[in-house]
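Exam prep: given the inputs below (a chain plus copper (II) ion), describe the expected output before reading on.
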Amino acid sequence: MTTIIIVGIIILLISIVFQVAKTSEMVSTLKGAAQSRKDSNNILGILMLVFMPVFLIGCIWSAVHFHKDFLPESASVHGDWIDSVFNTTLIVTGLVFFLTQIALFWFAFRYREQEGKKALYYPENNKLEMWWTIIPAIFMTVLVVTGLFYWYKITAPAPKDAMVIEVTGKQFNWIARYPGKDGKLGHKNFTLINDNNVEGLDWNDEATKDDIIPTELHFVVGKPTKIIINSRDVMHNFDLPHFRVKLDAVPGIPTTFWFTPKYTTEEMRVRVGNPKFNFELACAQICGQSHYAMKMAVVVQTQAEFDAWIKDQKPYYETAMPAPAVAESVPAAEEKKDEAKKEEKK
Ligand SMILES: [Cu+2]
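Solution:
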């Protein structure tokens, strides 16, 4: 029913516009071409003035209304810097946008074609050109230099005490790896990848044997965290929107990024007023059919909570290796027992 009403309204509007156009055509024939041109110029000029505030208010409304949807609340130290640069750029360019749009519509109204008015021939003004080059150049320089200042801070080498986590993207989930007690991530080799060894860890390297591959990412609040980002197959994109971390996961070329989480999950739940809030790692690169489902839960906790959690995690080696080893050794042991019994009987 609603659809029929909407279609009816659209047809009605089209026929009104058509009728108005037809009537104005008839009026112009009666009045003569010159008068009708004057009228339409006046109408268009006034419409420009009416459209200007509607358009500008719409811009302000959409910026305010959708601002929180552009990026969620920042939960990392450098996230605040990025937001401040972003907001400064938005304010400066927004101001210029408003001034130029007001001038554009006002000029369209003020200098519409009018009887007895002739356009002024004004080919150049060097002074004016100088100022409208210098002023934007100063603003652009300030914005770019501020951006670069933060960029170098953000991309500087990670502090030595940073926690190191490796995250590998694959179609269609993330694999996180924490170094075990030795604090070292063991070697891996893509040729060793199989169902029991999702990362292709090289078990000949002792450092791999305590590596942990959990199903969730855990960070410590206030602790610098360095992520080594990998991909097992196609290009993915490591995206932690709350931490303002977003970097491509490229097969064969590990990328790194470090950041410091500012709030625990619990604190963030209070901040956003949602007791069910959870941080999330997403894939921000369309990487195949189930790209939309490629995500991983992220927990930010205190050092003590993290220590308790990591203590409960089993090294991946234990889940990957012993099962076949035990299965082989059981029949072998049985055989030995049998042989021993036979010998006893002899
Ligand atoms: Cu992906």
